[in-house]
Amino acid sequence: MNARRLKKLLRGCNVVLHVASWLVPHRQRVEWLREWQGEIWHWAHFLVESDRLNARTEQELLGHCWGSFVDALWHRFNRVVVLDFAHSYPLTPRFCLLAILLAVFALLAASPVSLSSWILSPTAYVDSSHLLTVSLSAKSHWLRPELLREAAGRWARNNSLVAKAETYAWRPSVVRGPAGRESVLFARVTPGIFELLGSHPLLGRTFESTDASCTDCVVLSNTVWKSQFHGNSQVIGRSLSLDSHQVKIVGVLPAQFRFPGLDIGLYGPFGTVSDPSLLSFEWPGALVRLPAGVESTEAKRQLVAYVNHTGGLSSNIVLEVLSLRDIQYQFFESCADVTALALLLLILLNRQTVVLLLTTGPRRTVGESCRWWLFFAVKNSLLLLLVLAASVDLVQTVVLRYLNAQEYASGSVIWLFLVGLTVALTWSIRDQLSRCRTCLSRLRTQVDLGNSVGTFCEPSGVELVCNGGHGILHLPVMQFSCVDSERGTDLDESWRAVSEPQASVAAY
């Protein structure tokens, strides 16, 4: 009985070993298999001769055989080389940039409702180069939206530069629906504004010229449709509260639709019932379509002069005309201003660290200096994008979706961006200071010099040595003291043979 059980056990072990041997390089396979089979043969016969062969010891022996896959893998891939790569690659500049880049992509892919929707799914307008926006300047007096609507109608009739003009008026509002209270931007629009933008409704319809009497009709943006009704396709005809007035839903816009320069949540026709006290908070504007074949830059300059002098409005009304590209430039300028403010704040809070970064950089060759600062610039650019995406997504999720505080969204994004960028750039500077000035790898090998300044003010603290033998970074016990300070020291070629990793050893 034991002989039959022993043969069955050895047969199973040999099958496992033969499968594992396929991982071993061909020239080492026979010797590797002979060693493992000899070990298993002696183990199995010892169990039989000592009368210890049972179900538990059989499982132990089979478990040991399955461990041969690990041993075979180390023969295929040299253990020393693999472990050295696992320890050294995370210290390289390539790994640092790749990790930040993957974090940016993961954040954008996981949050399709905010910054990622603008970057990954840009809005496509019909002939966007011939689309202009007209709005009140910061120096202008307030204008009733109905007066601008009448003026826009005259522009389309009397000026050959205006092929079509539609008007809107937006204001902050409060919506109450199945999901509760939500702060949004509401816009009263003329019926042809969606056609001018080249958008068609996802559900239902948009407005028609006969909707002037439909004072309770609204069209939902895709964001409000999902936040209030969770994407329910049976939403047409249902009601919700807009500024304490009941309105009826007649349409839902597609996800890719974006109103130029504004994040509008609901749309209604002019004449929509609303609180009269909110009318003074409305900001009017117009969308103008230029005729095909007209050069947009020159037409925009002529249109600015026309609407401000001969457009039929009073002299205290100042209108500005912007293209979609101008709106994008204004957004990037505001981001640049916020970034500059964050950098200034960082420099003020970390003056000594910034000075240290400028004074301890590589100075041996121009190539090393360029590589050093290029890596620093690329790393900070990726961190900036990561912090911006995280700030917008966090505000989108917490402030807008759960707190329903639309009025605090812009300020929250700015403050989160400032704080996040300050923290990220502070880490970036410290990371840069802890890298080798030649190969840009993080310094790992540590040499302890002591914990106090000696009688003759000998250097004390810690020295970090580059594994490639390029240099040493000295970190004193007291930073920026008059006796000792942080500094980098370049090593000559004679240190390379001592510090370079050993060549890969042959597999055992």
Short structural description:
By secondary structure, the chain is α+β, with helices and mostly antiparallel strands. It has helices spanning 2-21, 26-49, 55-66, 68-76, 79-88, 93-110, 115-120, 145-158, 193-196, 222-229, 296-309, 324-349, 351-359, 366-402, 409-433, 496-499, and strands at residues 131-136, 164-177, 180-189, 203-204, 217-220, 239-242, 245-252, 266-269, 283-289, 319-323, 445-450, 461-465, 471-475, 487-490.
In the sheet with the most strands, the strands line up as 2-3-8-5-7-6
Secondary-structure content class: alpha+beta
Share of helical residues: 40-55%
Individual helix count:
16
The low-pLDDT segments are 112-123, 501-508
Q: Tell me, briefly, the overall form.
A: elongated
List the helices and strands and how they pair.
Layout: H1 2-21, H2 26-49, H3 55-66, H4 68-76, H5 79-88, H6 93-110, H7 115-120, E1 131-136, H8 145-158, E2 164-177, E3 180-189, H9 193-196, E4 203-204, E5 217-220, H10 222-229, E6 239-242, E7 245-252, E8 266-269, E9 283-289, H11 296-309, E10 319-323, H12 324-349, H13 351-359, H14 366-402, H15 409-433, E11 445-450, E12 461-465, E13 471-475, E14 487-490, H16 496-499
Parallel strand pairs: 3-8, 5-7
Antiparallel strand pairs: 1-9, 1-10, 2-3, 2-6, 2-9, 4-7, 5-8, 6-7, 11-12, 12-13, 13-14
Helix pairs in contact: 1-2, 1-3, 6-14, 12-15, 13-15, 14-15
List keywords for this structure.
508 residues; alpha+beta; 4 domains; six-stranded mixed beta barrel; four-stranded antiparallel sheet; 17% strand; elongated; disordered C terminus
